[in-house]
Specification:
It is a single chain. With 179 residues, this protein is an all-alpha fold. It has one domain: Growth Hormone, Chain: A (Up-down Bundle). The chain contains 8 helices and no strands. Helix 2 (36-52) packs across helix 7, helix 4 runs antiparallel to helix 5 (100-126) and helix 4 packs parallel to helix 6 (133-147). InterPro entries: 4_helix_cytokine-like_core (IPR009079), IL-10/19/20/24/26 (IPR020443), IL-10_CS (IPR020423), IL-19 (IPR020421). Disulfide bonds join 30-123, 77-129, 78-131. It is found in: Secreted.
Length: 179
């Protein structure tokens, strides 16, 4: 085997690694222009009041933070998209808030999530957003956990866990500056 033939596998491996880095780097930039610090601070202002309404403190909707930590970089787009849809289509619609300040904060977070959904959709036009079986199972588990509780309790529980999702978004989408 000549030297050129021996270098082909190394070249293919190097090219694959570069493309994977560019792909995950690009996904992180999709949501980089969302001010996560502001979202987290806004939520912190109402977190205690929402969690005080939680009648099932030993149950979680987002499973465990470990479930989100185990998401592979290639699945970040899919899981982000699915969990944004979960919060928009279920949690924000199902939660009934009577306190005006909390309602304003929740509406602000929902508007930011809507903005993130649109940014992610634009990003998906440029890149694929595949969902592995592992990613699909992780998000299905969230929906299943939600469905095991009565709707008002599930919505309150999910809002109380919003900081887990916000921290995960920040970790997976905020490592680069906007494109």
């Amino acid at each position: 085997m000549d030297m050129k033939t021996q270098c082909v596998p190394l070249w293919l491996l190097g090219t694959t690694l570069v493309l994977c880095c560019v792909y995950t780097h690009g996904l992180r930039r999709c949501l980089a222009f969302v001010d996560m610090r502001h979202l987290e601070e806004s939520f912190q202002g109402i977190k205690r009041a929402i969690q005080a309404k939680d009648t099932f403190p030993n149950i979680t909707i987002l499973s465990t933070a470990e479930t989100l930590r185990s998401i592979k970089p290639v699945d970040v787009c899919c899981v982000t998209k699915s969990l944004l849809e979960f919060y928009m289509d279920r949690v924000f619609k199902d939660h009934q808030e009577l306190k005006p300040q909390a309602l304003r904060t929740i509406s602000s977070v929902a508007n930011s999530f809507l903005y993130m959904q649109k940014a992610l959709q634009q990003c998906q036009v440029q890149r694929r957003c595949p969902c592995s079986e592992e990613a699909t199972n992780a998000t299905r588990m969230v929906y299943d956990n939600y469905d095991q509780l009565e709707v008002p309790s599930a919505a309150t529980k999910s809002l109380g866990e919003l900081d887990v999702f916000l921290a995960w978004i920040a970790k997976n989408h905020q490592k680069t500056s906007p494109a």
